[in-house]
């Protein structure tokens, strides 16, 4: 069993989330707010859906090749 818990913040980019998942070899990542409270979970399937919907391509065309879309919106709701 893993001893280190990996998590992301609502303002982390999808590229950051993907890198964390890849490095930690995990498929799900808790999203925690600044107080450490769980506000959601982002999955590998969520990242795949984002790519399929063309959002990644739209960001690349806008000049942000790193995929700079935040994980959550203004209300800290998981996208």
Give the gist of this structure.
The chain has 79 residues and is an alpha+beta fold. It is 34% helix and 14% strand.
Q: Would you give an account of this structure?
A:
The chain is of the alpha+beta class. It has helices spanning 14-24, 44-52, 55-61; strands spanning 28-32, 38-43. A hairpin with a 5-residue loop joins β1 (28-32) and β2. The longest helix is centred in the N-terminal third of the chain and has 11 residues, at 14-24. It is globular, with a radius of gyration of 13 Å. It starts with 13 loop residues before the first helix and ends in an 18-residue tail after the last helix. Residues 63-67 and 73-79 have low confidence and may be disordered.
Total number of helices: 3
Helical amount among residues, as a percent range?
Answer: 25-40%
Number of strands: 2
Shape: globular
Kindly, what is the distance between the CA atoms of the first and last residues, rounded to a whole number of angstroms? 29 Å
Strand content: 5-15%
- Structural class based on helices, strands and sheet pairing: alpha+beta
Order of helices and strands: HEEHH
Low-confidence stretches: 63-67, 73-79
What is the makeup of the main sheet? 2 strands, antiparallel
Can you list the strand order of the major beta sheet?
A: 1-2
Radius of gyration: 13 Å
Average of the residue pLDDT scores: 77
